[in-house]
What we know:
The protein has 170 residues and is mainly alpha-helical. It has helices at 15-34, 39-42, 54-73, 100-119, 139-165. 54% of the residues lie in helices and 0% in strands.
Amino acid sequence: MTITERPEPSTTAGERESLEGWLDYHRATLALKCEGLDDAQLRKAALAPSELTLLGLVRHLAEVERWWFAMVLEGLELPDLYSTAEDRDGDFHVTEEHTFADAEATWQAEIDRAREIAAKHGLDDLAVRRSRLGEEFNLRWIYTHMIEEYARHNGHADLLREQIDGVTGE
Length: 170
């Protein structure tokens, strides 16, 4: 079993290092919540009536990494990883064929791409894409949003993991 290292964010860092540190902390937290479980457990919707699963969260966050860094910030035209026009929530809809190994590899690849793209930009740099309302996003906002996105879903992951095997904690 792999033990995921979770880097503690610096308590004295500058703004960018703090934002990157907290985002990496939350990325590692999701990995920890999945650690030690098999595919069947990771596909288990343990909080009825919700269909939410740990595997679905990993797939969703791979989509989110791709969207905000590659597609919004950088302006790349890429297909969704799991969602389709027929199933906008395809990232959350897992089946017996879906494995954690595949989802984790995709998620880690999107994290790597996100880091490469972000490294080319300053916090005040504006994204290529705008919101539906025409609002602009800078990298600072994207980092803050990503931290919020992971923190919210890590709360879901806490509850799922506890229901699956009783494991609690950070």
